[in-house]
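hiii so um. not sure if this is the right channel but i have a protein structure encoded as tokens and i wanna go backwards to a sequence. like what aa goes where. can anyone help
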């Protein structure tokens, strides 16, 4: 697994997993037509990394082939002290440690290249696979949030991971 910038050449793989209803079940995004997805990929290829207040999506790619397996979104807060993560992985790539490796690599990037002191992620309380993954990586649940998702009431959990000072 490697993290890399998204490119226009990723369109077919990006659309394949982004149009899989099971992959998108707990995601805040919805599938887009090809033209919109292509514009998004081109935008993510060009924007600077880790600009405060702006989301950046990085591709999660197969090390050997470079084929896109998923993506990870990173949003550095406006004050630079916090970063939020969100991640998506194609169903065929799940359960093999790829998401864990991608998140750990992204954490290293954020803590290595920004002043962020904390990273957080929010997930629907019903998304047990995501909760298990976050807890395996050492994140701790810090908040219960009553909210609405796709027009229905739900509970989300906020997980945080603090920078480890050496």
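sure thing!! here u go:
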């Amino acid at each position: 697994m490697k993290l890399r910038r998204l490119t226009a050449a990723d369109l077919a793989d990006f659309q394949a997993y982004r149009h899989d209803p099971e992959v998108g079940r707990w995601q805040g995004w919805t599938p887009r037509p090809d033209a919109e997805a292509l514009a998004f990929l081109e935008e993510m290829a060009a924007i600077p990394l880790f600009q405060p207040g702006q989301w950046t999506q990085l591709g999660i790619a197969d090390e050997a082939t470079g084929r896109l397996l998923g993506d990870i979104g990173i949003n550095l807060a406006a004050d630079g002290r916090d970063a939020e993560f969100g991640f998506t992985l194609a169903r065929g790539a799940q359960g093999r440690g790829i998401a864990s490796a991608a998140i750990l690599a992204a954490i290293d990037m954020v803590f290595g290249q920004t002043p962020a002191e904390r990273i957080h992620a929010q997930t629907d309380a019903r998304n047990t696979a995501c909760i298990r993954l976050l807890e395996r990586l050492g994140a701790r649940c810090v908040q219960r949030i009553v909210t609405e998702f796709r027009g229905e009431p739900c509970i989300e959990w906020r997980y945080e991971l603090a920078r480890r000072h050496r």
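oh and The helical segments are 11-18, 34-46, 98-113, 128-136.
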